[in-house]
């Protein structure tokens, strides 16, 4: 194994840092500056993937960075793909009331599917012709004369050997090229899903879709559709290939042996389909539990400060692990049943061959070596469609369940417009028109007009007719015209003040009445300001691309942010961290208000932006910003939960109670009514806040968090290793099982050796049986029955050993998944806030607990078992070929050198591309969690910034997809060249068999060698590819293991010496370590938030008793 090292240089992280930053005008542009080489490649270069050579050679010499990888070809970009899909989706919605995402996806890629199917079919035809050539070659070898009569009419052995080599070369090359197209199709389907998640999450009405579900859709479900795209064709092609194979067997052995073998094959394939359906149902349950776990983990990470404040790490970790326990129970059932189905299809050719031969000899026919080995070659040719059928069925059901989840998501995100009338229900007499609103219709349409409008948070469903959801707002009557004015909304907590603003923004479903919103643009400030992980200026300017410095300066002054900026080394270019973690509550409120004020809008909706400010600051900001800057030129609707001393300055006061407007008019008209009991606290009262702009100490304290930051960049680049995945990564993973890693590895190898030996013995026994066939009639007892019984017994034994080895390995792999998650969850929860959570986006952390963990849970068991089986099959093939024809060892030397050289060059490039792929996935999930949580979607929609954020999301998706697709093509580049090495083995064995016709060891040896050599063309490349893919998958385990080395906080509890504990009088028998008094003492205490920053507290001494 090679070595790895961390790479977090600025050069390698520039693109990802740009994607992580929400500054929409600073997106990388180099992607559109580098044309994809396939655009100018000729047909020969495209067919043999020669255009990909430069990148592989570059990766073998130097570590790859994102700048070394070409941008996506235009047809593969998210915007173009989404446009294609929307055309199919629109057609589906027009033709049926319940459109299917999966059918629309098939319609979108019907031409691509046709190309892949054509290539796979051509390759399959060439594969099926190879046993015919092998039969003629064996007929040539069994003939003593120089000229032989063969089924193909070719009497020259060298011509037959050359024909077999050409067929082998053509079949593998066309198949690999088809996989390139299939992988591209899968990557495109994955991009469409991720783009749809962003598109519909930004559209609103997502109350029924949690951020955890969104992350699962974008990471897990999209990956399942990628896998379906890769294997989908085999769902139809495999049965056809198997049918053709048994028809060809019928021409050689007769109808009944072929029918018997086909019956076994069909039965096992049907069993695989049924098991696949059951496994798909389990997978559906896994996705539900996984979504809940990811959702809770996201909430846990978002509120990590509160968790640490109250010392909740242990109970919340236990809760997550309990959810993880449910997930692991389902994963165990999923993998066990999946393996049973896979093994049934894996041994289907073996059992079919056994039954074919038993029925053939039972008819009294004589088994000859050519017939035995041509049947064995045909059955071995069925291994590929059978194993591929297993994968395709599993992935198809997984994709269908994911598609159903996407259907539900798309249905939930369909909006109910608030700009059209619905028949109003019976309602009480509406509140009288406010005194300051003329009864005469305005000359221009009002910005907002609600008439007997009732709203619900959740969209009513047809299933909820008997139990409709409760109304959030009831019988609302309000008109807001374009006249500059200030409307203040008051009421009890939970009375519906914020819901009223949400209804104006269109975030509530209109249940009855009428609602018209004509405001073209809205300046919105939420009660808990949604801030991005960006600079202060980027948060205020938001998506506005016009440089309006004068207005920006006026807004900063009106919101009293100038003093804060003066204390920052980077000024307004200082990054404020995820959710503005480096700002105080008052600073967050003023930045959120400044963003709304900077917007040149028709209407301003402000949801209690003054609650985090004390009376003095609130009054100043209210007068300078809300009154003077905004309401003098535009209408303003302001929610107030405190600071009632500001009510006399309102032109209009709305009083809310229980979701209804119970008072509407100037304060004077309401003063003599009973409405004032709803806000009966003294008008001069105000909430006390720690943020006081008039207090120098408060100002210093509020800015201490960011004032000490010498750099404007807060988020650190994500760690990324280069080079091979080391053996230590595998050892660490195995040790996570709780057992000795080396001992587990050796025991696994032992059971695989035993199973493979039994499989080889079965194939050898077929040749031995056929060679002994001429002498069976000379003995007094029926040796055919004896031999058939032995062969059937070997088949059953092989089935048991193959199943046993799989279940044995799965046991340890599931233990690894369980302990690995528990370890990293504990380490993350005990990581320091300043040096970890403040500089690490939540999406990056969540990527570990979603995509990376899902990869380890699902791909490691599947790939691990498959790779081990293929490795031992390769060893068996090479040993059999060498044992039957020692001269082939001379060919192994150059082919082995080419193989090792190719693998060394490729593995360096592939692993780096996979790491780039994993790293580029974090910005996608980070942007998704950032925009879907804490009112982000509401703010984006209020500012009509959906298109800007969708463009940013598509840039992040395209960045991730260019690495994902490039990595996949690199695997097929390598597989194609390895297949050519395998073709060299086939040609070598065939030519040696002809050259050593009278000295090779008989037709049995030649037949066995040719049969195993043909297997090698399929197995060698697949094994190496899957091993390399396993290395890539292990980069996810590597990324998880990185969190085992996180810096940890100090102990939550600390034992004190018994001498410091004084027992209470009369309670001397109490526990010796029970404290009798508490105290907090700081003596000359200084601290900084993390290494490299200036001191935030200096020489503080205090004592609290």
UniProtKB/TrEMBL annotation:
Which Gene Ontology cellular-component terms appear in the entry?
vacuolar membrane
Transmembrane as UniProt keyword: yes
- What does UniProt list as this organism's lineage? Eukaryota, Sar, Stramenopiles, Oomycota, Saprolegniomycetes
- ABC transporter domain residues are 448-683
- Keyword DNA-binding in the entry? The reply is no
| Topological relation to the membrane, as annotated | Multi-pass membrane protein
Recorded GO molecular functions are: ABC-type transporter activity; ATP binding; ATP hydrolysis activity
Q: Which SUPFAM superfamilies match?
A: ABC transporter transmembrane region, P-loop containing nucleoside triphosphate hydrolases
Which InterPro entries does the record associate with it?
AAA+_ATPase, ABC1_TM_dom, ABC1_TM_sf, ABC_transporter-like_ATP-bd, ABC_transporter-like_CS, ABC_transporter_C-like, ABCC_6TM_D1, ABCC_6TM_D2
Pfam families reported for this sequence? ABC_membrane, ABC_tran
Q: Which UniProt keywords apply?
A: ATP-binding, Membrane, Nucleotide-binding, Repeat, Transmembrane, Transmembrane helix, Transport
> Where in the cell is the protein located?
Vacuole membrane
* Main localization (coarse): membrane
Instruction: Give residue ranges for domain ABC transmembrane type-1.
Output: 115-396, 742-1032
Segments crossing the lipid bilayer: 113-138, 158-182, 225-249, 255-274, 340-361, 742-765, 785-803, 867-893, 978-996, 1002-1020
Return the annotated region ranges for Disordered. Answer: 417-443
Domain of life assignment: Eukaryota
Q: Which SMART domains does its entry note?
A: AAA
Organism of derivation: Aphanomyces astaci
Protein name stated in the entry: ABC transmembrane type-1 domain-containing protein
């Amino acid at each position: 194994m090679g070595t790895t090292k961390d790479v977090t240089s600025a050069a390698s992280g520039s693109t990802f840092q740009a994607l992580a930053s929400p500054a929409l005008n600073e997106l990388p542009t180099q992607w559109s500056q580098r044309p994809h080489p396939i655009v100018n490649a000729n047909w020969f270069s495209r067919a043999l993937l020669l255009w990909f050579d430069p990148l592989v050679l570059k990766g073998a010499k130097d570590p790859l960075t994102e700048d070394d990888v070409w941008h996506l070809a235009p047809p593969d970009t998210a915007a173009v793909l989404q446009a294609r899909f929307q055309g199919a989706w629109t057609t589906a919605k027009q033709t049926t009331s319940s459109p299917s995402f999966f059918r629309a996806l098939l319609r979108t890629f019907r031409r691509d599917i046709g190309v892949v199917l054509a290539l796979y079919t051509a390759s399959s035809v060439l594969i099926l012709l190879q046993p015919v050539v092998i039969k003629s070659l064996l007929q040539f070898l069994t003939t003593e004369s120089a000229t032989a009569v063969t089924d193909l009419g070719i009497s020259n052995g060298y011509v037959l050997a050359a024909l077999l080599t050409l067929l082998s070369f053509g079949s593998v090359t066309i198949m690999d090229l088809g996989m390139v197209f299939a992988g591209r199709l899968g990557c495109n389907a994955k991009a469409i899903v991720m783009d749809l998640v962003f598109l519909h999450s930004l559209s609103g009405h997502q109350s029924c879709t949690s951020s955890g579900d969104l992350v699962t859709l974008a990471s897990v479900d999209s990956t399942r559709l990628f896998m379906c795209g890769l294997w989908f064709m085999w769902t139809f092609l495999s049965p056809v290939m198997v049918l053709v194979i048994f028809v060809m067997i019928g021409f050689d052995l007769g109808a009944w042996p072929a029918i018997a073998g086909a019956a076994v094959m069909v039965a096992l394939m049907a069993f695989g389909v049924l098991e696949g359906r059951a496994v798909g149902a389990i997978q559906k349950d896994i996705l539900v539990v996984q979504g809940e776990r990811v959702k809770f983990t996201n909430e846990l990470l978002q509120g990590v400060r509160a968790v640490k404040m109250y010392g909740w790490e242990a109970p919340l970790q236990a809760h997550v692990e309990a959810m993880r326990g449910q997930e692991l129970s389902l994963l165990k059932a999923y993998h066990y049943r999946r393996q049973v189905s896979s093994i049934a299809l894996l041994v289907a050719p073996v059992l079919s061959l056994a039954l074919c031969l038993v029925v053939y000899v039972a008819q009294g026919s004589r088994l000859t070596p050519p017939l035995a080995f041509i049947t064995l070659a045909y059955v071995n040719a069925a291994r590929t469609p059978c194993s591929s059928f297993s994968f395709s069925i599993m992935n198809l059901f997984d994709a269908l369940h994911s598609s159903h989840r996407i259907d539900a998501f798309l249905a939930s995100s369909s909006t109910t417009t608030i700009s059209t009338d619905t028949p109003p229900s019976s309602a009480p007499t509406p509140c009288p028109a406010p005194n300051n609103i003329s009864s005469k219709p305005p000359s221009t349409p009002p910005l907002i007009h609600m008439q007997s409008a009732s709203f619900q948070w959740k969209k009513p469903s047809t299933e909820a007719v008997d139990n409709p959801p409760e109304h959030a707002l009831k019988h609302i009557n309000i008109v807001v015209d374009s006249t500059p004015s200030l409307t203040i909304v008051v009421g009890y907590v939970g009375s519906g003040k914020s819901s009223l603003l949400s209804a104006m923004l269109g975030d509530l479903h209109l249940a009855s009445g009428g609602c018209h919103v004509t405001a073209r643009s809205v300046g919105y400030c939420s009660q808990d300001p949604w801030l991005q992980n960006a600079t202060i200026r980027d948060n205020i300017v938001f998506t506005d691309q016009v440089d309006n410095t004068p207005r920006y300066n006026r807004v900063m002054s009106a919101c009293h942010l100038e003093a804060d900026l003066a204390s920052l080394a980077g000024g307004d270019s200082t990054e404020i961290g995820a959710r503005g973690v480096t700002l105080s509550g008052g600073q967050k409120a003023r930045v959120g208000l400044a963003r709304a004020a900077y917007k040149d809008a028709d209407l301003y909706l402000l949801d209690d932006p003054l609650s985090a400010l004390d009376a003095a600051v609130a009054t100043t900001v209210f007068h300078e910003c809300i009154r003077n800057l905004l309401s003098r030129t535009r209408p303003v609707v302001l929610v107030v939960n405190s600071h009632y001393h500001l009510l006399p300055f309102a032109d209009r006061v709305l009083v809310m109670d229980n979701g209804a407007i119970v008072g509407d008019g100037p304060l004077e008209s309401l003063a003599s009514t009973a409405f004032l009991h709803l806000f009966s606290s003294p008008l001069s009262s105000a909430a006390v806040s720690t943020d006081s702009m008039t207090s120098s100490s408060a100002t210093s304290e509020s800015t201490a968090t960011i004032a000490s930051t010498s750099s404007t960049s807060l988020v650190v680049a994500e760690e990324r290793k280069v080079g091979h995945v080391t053996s230590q990564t595998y050892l660490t993973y195995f040790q996570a099982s709780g057992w000795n890693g080396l001992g587990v590895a050796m025991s696994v190898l032992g059971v695989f050796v035993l199973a493979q030996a039994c499989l080889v013995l079965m194939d050898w026994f077929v040749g031995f049986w056929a060679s002994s066939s001429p002498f069976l009639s000379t003995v007094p007892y029926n040796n055919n029955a004896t031999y058939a019984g032995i062969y059937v017994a070997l088949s059953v034994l092989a089935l048991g050993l193959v199943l046993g080895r799989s279940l044995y390995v799965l046991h340890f792999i599931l233990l690894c998944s369980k302990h690995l998650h528990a370890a990293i969850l504990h380490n993350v929860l005990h990581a320091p806030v300043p040096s970890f959570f403040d500089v690490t986006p939540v999406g990056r952390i969540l990527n570990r607990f979603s995509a990376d963990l899902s990869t380890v849970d699902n791909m490691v068991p599947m790939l691990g078992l498959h790779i081990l089986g293929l490795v031992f099959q390769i060893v068996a093939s090479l040993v059999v070929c060498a044992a039957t024809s020692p001269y082939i060892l001379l060919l192994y030397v150059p082919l082995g050198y080419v193989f090792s050289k190719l693998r060394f060059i490729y593995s360096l490039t592939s692993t780096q591309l996979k790491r780039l792929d994993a790293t580029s996935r974090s910005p996608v999930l980070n942007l998704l969690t950032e925009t879907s949580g804490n009112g982000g979607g509401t703010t984006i929609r209020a500012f009509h910034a959906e298109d800007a954020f969708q463009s940013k999301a598509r840039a992040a998706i395209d960045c991730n997809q260019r690495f994902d697709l490039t990595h996949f093509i690199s695997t097929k580049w390598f597989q194609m060249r390895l297949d050519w090495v395998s073709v060299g083995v086939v040609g070598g064995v065939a030519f040696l068999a002809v050259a050593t016709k009278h000295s090779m060891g008989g037709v049995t040896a030649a037949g066995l060698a040719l049969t195993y050599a043909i297997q090698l063309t399929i197995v060698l490349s697949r094994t190496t590819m899957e091993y390399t893919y396993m290395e890539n998958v292990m980069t996810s385990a590597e990324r998880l293991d990185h969190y085992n080395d996180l810096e940890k906080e100090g102990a939550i509890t600390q034992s004190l010496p018994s001498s410091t504990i004084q027992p209470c009088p009369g309670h001397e028998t109490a526990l010796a370590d029970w404290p009798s008094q508490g105290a907090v003492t700081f003596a000359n205490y200084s601290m900084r938030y993390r290494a490299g920053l200036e001191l935030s507290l200096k020489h503080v001494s205090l004592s609290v008793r």
